[in-house]
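Feature request, filed as a ticket because there's no other form

It would be nice if the structure record came with a short human-readable summary line next to the tokens. Right now we just get the raw output. Example of a typical job, pasted below so the devs can see what we mean:
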Amino acid sequence: LAASGQGRAIGEPIDIAIRTDHVRIGDPPAMGLGFAGIVSNIEYRGSTVKLSVNGAGIEDFTVIVDDTSFFAKPVAVGDAVPIAWDTEDAIVLGRLDS
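Raw output as currently delivered:
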């Protein structure tokens, strides 16, 4: 995955943070800026919808979308979805201890 940051070698393991409210569902991701996953949970929160997506070795990746966008192209638990974000929405944190 691609992220903004400095001081890391290509291929070095890192942890990144991605703004969950800037992630898009349904858009094919550019190289390193997203992945395809399976929707594992949907939580309606009034004006937003929280999706949990598993894929690319990531469990419980959170996506927050506004309800208008969600209901325009709804997904269901078990659906495969592409998720994407922009480079500036993914920040290198370094390597966090697990």
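Something like this underneath would help us a lot:
The longest strand covers residues 34-45.
The mean pLDDT is 86.
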